[in-house]
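Thread: Newbie trying to understand structure tokens

Hi all, I'm a second-year student working on a class project, and my supervisor (Dr. K.) asked me to get a predicted structure for one chain before our next meeting. I've only ever worked with sequences, so writing a 3D structure as a token string is new to me. If someone could post the tokens and maybe explain what I'm looking at, I'd be very grateful. Here's the chain:
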Amino acid sequence: MFDSVTTIEARCDQAAAFDHIARRFFEHHGIWDPSVVSMTKTSDGPVGRGTTGMEGRRFGPSRMVSEIAVTAFEPDRRFGFETTKGPMSERLECTIEARPGGSEVRVHIRLAGVALPLKIMEPLMRPMFARNLRANTERMRLALDAAATGAHP
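---
Reply by user tm_fold:
Sure, no problem. This is what the structure looks like when written as tokens:
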């Protein structure tokens, strides 16, 4: 299993960070993680705890599709989701706090192979997961900083 926590300091306020990460999750997830090629919300209503969807992801030359569910949704404070079906188990939780000049986003992610080939390859993939996490959190920071100026992607 890959388990990591990182913190992002963003220029946007706490409410704008939550809006970008949580309320617009299905629109924005692919901005921070370019391996996500499609996000489809499969439940009715606004995004909230229990919202479900499908995530399409590039994985090398292949494409993986996973079912996901929002597991945490505390306005302006906490957002999380996890895969409920698919070849990889992914659980992400973001905790957002106000700070002078913006917000701080704590990102906790856990990844593990579910399908046998991914379980076998998992130890070899950990360095790739770490590189992707660094790049993806930097993309998230840039997107949040753009949200601070009103420039939504």
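A couple of things are worth pointing out once you decode it. The mean pLDDT is 92. Strands lie at 2-10, 36-41, 52-59, 62-74, 78-85, 88-99, 102-113. Feel free to ask follow-ups in this thread.
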